[in-house]
Structures are given as structure tokens and as C-alpha cells.
Specification:
820 residues; alpha/beta; Methane Monooxygenase Hydroxylase, Chain G, domain 1; Chitobiase, domain 2; TIM Barrel; 4 domains; 8-stranded parallel beta barrel; 33% helix; glycosidase; metal ion binding; calcium; GH
């Protein structure tokens, strides 16, 4: 699974993009427990996602006729029927005749007959024959037959579900069995017995930052339905009526939007789960607050909601919100907090959920949601919380590097029930994800987790449509964790986005590889960046020293694939929401790819001793790289400033290394980052009790996700680094904090001097030997400041006269130092 080597293949002479060493398009690949038997003259079965529990050949493929008989009755699911009709017409059917099981005309022998409904319906049961119908919720059986029991040609497709959702999922499988052959559509001769391994599957809109739009949410409901995912939890942190204003009813306009969303979810057999998060302000002992909570739930019940969640995450549970809680539950602490929460949750489950028809068991997120430590809090939860209540758990951390069967089993033990995993992937609302799309396929979750979990939901990115690539693979895993294959699922996700076009899917996988990084809250990511392209870059430099011409020729197709992928994606991906979400990353990918192409031209010119051509290509490389590095995320979409990140550090390091080789050819010392690890000081340190130091050294440690911070007591605070020796400087890059405070570093000076600074800011401006630059537009990070100064000391000095903190993530100083 993880870490399988995948290599970029050469572009064909026609200019089309191919990735030959990616896993094949798995037309006949099936999960380990699936059995495929090749029938005489039959074609390989198409690949189906999510991976079915069992799929095999039933016989020959069936040709789709221009007229189709659709056999349905009053127990046929309306959504399944409507989607089936749509798929039939999409695949060449001009006329669909609806008939009841007892009214199939005798003259139907040559027409394709499709039967949809309950699996026990006599005509469906007979058509399914020996195709097993799993005795589980949401299960289905499907059989495509080219001949009747007497061996006569009679195309027939049977779709039987154990319930309405099963019928709908059978149709979702059937739509993937259509194949185009010459001018005809056929349906692969397959039989499928299938069911979900996990009861709950889907996504939770639970991130911080800008919310999805109404159109994006509707689009996501359709996507979840296609992926046989049955759960969507509405819990956006920045919806005030979900969290801060939880007592207040939704305004009429917002409620109308939610009603539309609830209806769309229901049509796709997705449970719209309404979450309300009262923990930051609720008084557990006050009946009025309990009543306000149930009133909020009742309003959503009246709007059509039948699943509810009460998240109690990201709150303080060692203090009370009202004096009455201390009187009723005692001094604040873990055990007391759990008693208060359990009282509220049990009341909602008993008095609201259980008393209303059709409502699913209550869900909750515990305050201790991301560890395996047994505490008074968890002891109280498992001993006293109603067993029907679903408990969510994020794994062993907020963003866990893995989830094993042993961990999930322990979590079930600690909470006294199977846990429902809120997996914080591919969410990008925390500092280490700044500037990133997280597109890697799901990984490092063990097969067999379905034995210990009640389900998995993905917490997606602020970018809804861009999240689909990862959520696709997560849905695949939660449907059939034991049949999940990471590479196969990644290819299927790319094909899904590409509407089945292989060339476009190749380009999508190039783009995914360059956006493969998946950070945790620690220093090590749980998914690596650019495993394919990074390996290609490393091979190139290994080979370049011994045979530059061969290395360039072998690496150029990989670089060209990067440069061309954005154009192919924009041309071939029909999902306009995805193209909008990914637009800035596509722009940056194209520019970086073009910059690298010119970089290869620089190296080729150097190898040919053509200094003029090398200089011209260097100029183009630098210009394109500068343009790429200035593409910033949209704060309105992701809630923070900063550059988009693509294939880092491999792409930027490649460009920098080519630049140094070109400089070396002209007799120049290499351009180096001189501030890393050098002595840094600041006017004062922020006081945090020593738990989280924000000293000046944090801005020269190479980590963009920690930062230095002054106390905030001084006007015109400063930070500086001593380079240790004078150097000819060419540029200074200043990175702000990615989580907040960018506006504070907006009006400031950057000073360079050979001598230590003394006195005030005003004393330094215009002083002989001091170079200065005034920056007033800190709209994003990094800010690149060009300089021709020579100096040893570099100081950043705020210009404002009001006391304020100076926050910086990193200061990088680039200069040339003559070796020796």
C-alpha cells in the first residue's frame, strides 16, 4: 500500500500525457476476496468503486437497446428509479417503459429488461438466481444476464436491495458497468453481492474558516450519494448558529437553504446530521438551556432532519460557565465535566431522540477526543452514557499518523462502545496545512477497522470540490476496508474526476502527486510530499554528474508532465467547482513546470558551453519561478494568507540548484540562506510561562509553523539576526505567522548594517552604513525584499507608535559568501 514506487513515464510523441508506471486502470482488478471468472468471449469487468464485497462474471455482456422495459412497483425506491432512468438515457436508451412485475409484455423478448426493487420481490429473486443477497442493511445484489433459463437470448438486469438504500447503491454500481464498444453501449456481464463494512460513512463539515457555499454543499450531497456514503454532518465551526449563537434560531433565509440541503441529502440516501455545539457557553444545570437546545433540535426536526449530533470538542472542561454547575456537579474537572455532559446527552437521547419517529441515535464528540488515555472523564462516559449514543473519536491525535486495529479496539474499550471516527483528513484549516491542497489517497488505516468502528467520516478541506479526490478514497475504504487498495482507489478517483478519460486522469495524478503532503500537528507529515516527482528529481541529480545529457533527456518528460498537467486538467475535467478550487494551484504548477523546463535548458546549454543561451534560459527560469512564488491563496476561501505550495521542496530546490550551477559557471559564489541557525534577538519575549517559547530563534530555525513573538508592551518593537560575518546580500524573505496576525507586520522597516544597531528607529534611518527598506503592503507571506546591501546585522523594525507584538514565522537572508 503506502510507499509503492510510481514513476512518471515519458510523453508520447503525439504530446499526450501518460504515466505508464502508475498502477494500470484496473479494468479487471478486484479486491483480494473478489472472484472473477472469465466467460467465453467475455471482456474484463470494469472496475467498480467503492470496491464491492464480491463481483464476478455472470456471462456475456448485454447490449443496451434503444427501448428498455423498466420493471418497478410501489416498493421501488424513487431516487434509485430516477437515477436508473437517467443512466439508461445517458447510455443510448431513447425510450424507457415502466411496467409492473405482473405486466411484462410477451413481446419483450428482444428488449433489455431492467428489474429494480426489493430483493425478495419474486421476479427479482428469480432473475438474481444464485447471486447471494447479503442479509445486512444497505446491501444489494445485481445480476446482468444475456440469456434466460432456457438459453434463449433475453437481456435482463436485476437490481435488488434489502432496503431503499440498497436499491440506490445497486444503481450506483450498475452505472459503472456501462461500456462503449464502437457505436454501441453494453453492460458488463457481472453479478455482484455487496454491502457496506461500516454502518456510517461520509463527511463532516467540521473545519474552521470560511464555510462552503450552498451550491458546494448541494454538490457534495450528490457526490456522497454516488460514493454510497450515507452520512453528512453539518458542523462548520464558523457558523455562529452552530456554536456561538446556538440558542438562537436560524434566520428564515438560512433555514430555507438548509431545508434544500436536507432534501438533496435525502434523495441520495445521505443522512443529513445536524450538529449543534453548545459547550462553550451552556449551563448544564439550567433547565432553560436544555430547553433551548431541544428547541433548536426540534426546529431542525421540523425541517426534515432525522440525525443529530452534539459536539463537545475544543472547549474548556476545567471551568464552569455558570455558578449553578459548581453547585450541582462539584468543582470543575474531568469527572465533573463528564457527569454534566452525560446528563445533557442522556436527556436529549431519552426525551428528544427516542420520542420522535425515525430519528437515529444521537451522536456526540467528547472533549477528550484524540487519545487513548484512561481518565475520570472517559470512565464516566463509558459507565453512564446511554449505550445508544454514538461517540466520535479522531484517533490517537487530532491528526493521527495512523489508525490501527489495536488502537480502535482500545478506544472502544475506553468509551464502552464502538467509536465513530472523525478523521481529520483532508482538512486544511491548521497552520501546517497553510497554502496546501491535500489530495493524497487515504492510507495508513488498517484493514479490519470495520470490526472495531461504527464508521468513518472525513473532515474535508475548505475547498469542497478539491476534497473529492481524498474523500473518494476514504469512502472506498469505509465501504470495504478489507478490499481497499490505495493505488487502485487513487486511480479510480482520478478517473471519476476526469469523467473516465485516461489522459485527463493521468494529469490529475501528476497534480495529486505534487499536492501529496499531509501534515500532522507534529513536525513529521503522515503522508509525504511528491513521492513520485521527488524520487524523479533525486534520480536526476544522481545521474547528472556522470552523464548530464542522458540525465536531462530522461528527466525532461517528467518536467513536461508537470508543465502540461494544468492545461489538460482544465480541458478535460468537467467539474467546474473543482477547477475553481484548484485554480491557483494549477496556475502555480504550470509556472513552476515551465520554470523547470527552462532550468533543464540552462543545464543543457552549460553542458554545451553555450554561455549566451544559458544566460537567456536562466532569465526565463527565474522570471517564471518568481511569478509562481507570488501566487497566493485566497483568504476568503481558506481563511489565511500565504503562498500556494506545490511539490515543495523539490521544485524550488531544483530551480535554486540550477541557479547556483549557473552562477558557478560565471565564477560567482553560490547564493546561500545565511540566517538559518544564527544568533537572533528581539526587544523582548512574549510571556507564556515557559510552556510554548516564542523566542527570537524561532524565526531562524527553518520551521515556518513556529514563530517568534515580542511581549507587545513596546511601540516599534524589533527583531534581528547576526549573520556572524558580513556578506553581500541579494534578498530577504519575511514569513508571517500563518494562523493569525498578518496585519501586525504591515508597516515596518528592514535594516542592514555592518555594525550593531543602537538607539531608536529614527536614529538609524538615513544613517551612513545602514541600508533600509520601508514595507507597507504585507498582504501575504512571504514578502521578498531585494537588496544590494552588504552587512552582518539584519533587523526588522515595526514603524507604528502603538504598543503591539511583533510576530514572525521565519526570516531568510540570502547572500553570497566567498568560500575560504
Amino acid at each position: 500500500m503506502a510507499g509503492r514506487s510510481i514513476a512518471f513515464a515519458a510523453l508520447a510523441l503525439t504530446g499526450s500525457l501518460a504515466i505508464a508506471a502508475f498502477p494500470p486502470v484496473a479494468r479487471a482488478a478486484e479486491p483480494p476476496d473478489a472472484h472473477v471468472t472469465a466467460a467465453a468471449n467475455s471482456r474484463p469487468l470494469p472496475s467498480v468503486s467503492p470496491t464491492p464485497q464480491s463481483i464476478s462474471r455472470s456471462g456475456d455482456d448485454v447490449t443496451v437497446t434503444g427501448r428498455v422495459l423498466l420493471v418497478v412497483d410501489e416498493h421501488t425506491d424513487a431516487s434509485a428509479r430516477d437515477r436508473l432512468v437517467r443512466e439508461l438515457k445517458k447510455h443510448g436508451v431513447a425510450r424507457v417503459d415502466n411496467v409492473s412485475p405482473g405486466a411484462v409484455p410477451q413481446a419483450s423478448q428482444g428488449l433489455l429488461t431492467v428489474r429494480l426493487g426489493a430483493a425478495e420481490r419474486p421476479d427479482i429473486a428469480a432473475a438474481l438466481g444464485d447471486t447471494a443477497v447479503p442479509a445486512r442493511a444497505e446491501s444489494y445484489a445485481l445480476k446482468v444476464s444475456a440469456r434466460d433459463a432456457q438459453g434463449e437470448a433475453h437481456p435482463d438486469i436485476a437490481l435488488g436491495g434489502t432496503d431503499a438504500a440498497g436499491q440506490f447503491y445497486a444503481v450506483q454500481t450498475l452505472r459503472q458497468l456501462f461500456q462503449r464498444h464502437d457505436d454501441d453501449w453494453t453492460v458488463a456481464g457481472a453479478q455482484v453481492s455487496d454491502y457496506p463494512s461500516m454502518p456510517l460513512r461520509g463527511s463532516i463539515e467540521g473545519f474552521y474558516g470560511p464555510q462552503w457555499t450552498a451550491a458546494e454543499r448541494l454538490d457534495h450531497m450528490d457526490f456522497l450519494g454516488e460514493m454510497k456514503s450515507n452520512t453528512y454532518v453539518y458542523a462548520p465551526k464558523d457558523d455562529p448558529y452552530h456554536r456561538d449563537k446556538w440558542r438562537e434560531p436560524y434566520p428564515a433565509v438560512r433555514l430555507a437553504e438548509l431545508r434544500q440541503l436536507i432534501d438533496r441529502a435525502r434523495a441520495g440516501h445521505v443522512r443529513f446530521t445536524f450538529a449543534v455545539s453548545p459547550g462553550a457557553s451552556i449551563c448544564y444545570s439550567d433547565p432553560a438551556d436544555t430547553e433551548a437546545l431541544t428547541d433548536k433540535l426540534q426546529a431542525m426536526y421540523d425541517a426534515g432532519v432525522r440525525s443529530f449530533s452534539i459536539p463537545l470538542d475544543d472547549i474548556s472542561y476545567t471551568r464552569w460557565n455558570c455558578p449553578g454547575d459548581a453547585e450541582k456537579f462539584g468543582a470543575p474537572g474531568r469527572g465533573a465535566a463528564a457527569r454534566a455532559q452525560v446528563g445533557l446527552l442522556n436527556a436529549v437521547q431519552h426525551d428528544f431522540v427516542a420520542e420522535r419517529e425515525g430519528v437515529n441515535p444521537l451522536q456526540m464528540v467528547p472533549t477528550e477526543y484524540g487519545d487513548l488515555t484512561d481518565t475520570a472523564y472517559k470512565q464516566t462516559i463509558r459507565a453512564t452514557l446511554d449505550p445508544a449514543v454514538q461517540v466520535m473519536w479522531t484517533g490517537t491525535d487530532v491528526v493521527p499518523p495512523q489508525i490501527t486495529n489495536a488502537q480502535a479496539s482500545k478506544a472502544a474499550e475506553l468509551f464502552g462502545r464502538k467509536v465513530f471516527v472523525w478523521d481529520n483528513y483532508p482538512v486544511n484549516d491548521f497552520a501546517r496545512t497553510a497554502g496546501r491542497l491535500l489530495l493524497a489517497p487515504y492510507d495508513k488505516r488498517e484493514p479490519g477497522l470495520s470490526d472495531h468502528l461504527s464508521g468513518i467520516v472525513s473532515n474535508p478541506m475548505n475547498q469542497q470540490a478539491a476534497s473529492k479526490l481524498a474523500v473518494f478514497t476514504m469512502s472506498d475504504f469505509s465501504w470495504n476496508d478489507r478490499g481497499y487498495d490505495r493505488d487502485r482507489s487513487a486511480r479510480q478517483a482520478a478517473l471519476h474526476l476526469a469523467a473516465g478519460d485516461s489522459r485527463t486522469a493521468d494529469a490529475v495524478q501528476v497534480f495529486v502527486d505534487l499536492n501529496h503532503m499531509a501534515p500532522t500537528f507534529g513536525s513529521q507529515p503522515w503522508q509525504p510530499q511528491a513521492p513520485v516527482f521527488g524520487a524523479a528529481v533525486e534520480r536526476f541529480w544522481q545521474d547528472h554528474g556522470s552523464d548530464a545529457e542522458r540525465a536531462i533527456a530522461e528527466f525532461r518528460p517528467s518536467v513536461r508532465a508537470v508543465a502540461q498537467a494544468p492545461g489538460i486538467i482544465r480541458e478535460g475535467v468537467p467539474d467546474k467547482l473543482f477547477l475553481s478550487d484548484a485554480s491557483r494551484w494549477l496556475d502555480a504548477t504550470q509556472l513552476w513546470g515551465q520554470s523547470m523546463e527552462h532550468g533543464l535548458n540552462v543545464l543543457a546549454a552549460l553542458a554545451a558551453h553555450n554561455a549566451a543561451e544559458a544566460a537567456q534560459e536562466r532569465q526565463s527560469m527565474d522570471s517564471l519561478a518568481a511569478a509562481a512564488s507570488q501566487i497566493m491563496v485566497d483568504p476568503a476561501e481558506q481563511g489565511r494568507h500565504g503562498p500556494v505550495k506545490i511539490g515543495d521542496p523539490f521544485i524550488e530546490d531544483f530551480v535554486a540548484r540550477v541557479a547556483n550551477l549557473h552562477d558557478e559557471s560565471m565564477g560567482l559564489p553560490p547564493l546561500r540562506e545565511l540566517a538559518r541557525g544564527k544568533q537572533a534577538t528581539q526587544i523582548s519575549d512574549y510571556e507564556w510561562g515557559g510552556a510554548f517559547p516564542f523566542g527570537a530563534d524561532k524565526s531562524v530555525d527553518g520551521d515556518l509553523f513556529d514563530f517568534s513573538t515580542t511581549s507587545g508592551r513596546e511601540a516599534q518593537p524589533w527583531w534581528q539576526v547576526d549573520l556572524g560575518a558580513s556578506a553581500d546580500l541579494e534578498k530577504i524573505e519575511i514569513y508571517n505567522r500563518t494562523d493569525c496576525c498578518a496585519e501586525r507586520t504591515k508597516d515596518y522597516y528592514v535594516l542592514v548594517s555592518d555594525q550593531p544597531f543602537s538607539g531608536t528607529l529614527a536614529d538609524q534611518l538615513g544613517k551612513p552604513g545602514v541600508w533600509s527598506h520601508h514595507e507597507t503592503d504585507q498582504a501575504a507571506s512571504p514578502t521578498t525584499i531585494a537588496t544590494t546591501a552588504r552587512g552582518r546585522y539584519v533587523r526588522v523594525w515595526l514603524a507604528g507608535t502603538d504598543p503591539v507584538e511583533l510576530n514572525m514565522a521565519e526570516v531568510q537572508v540570502y547572500g553570497r559568501v566567498q568560500e575560504g
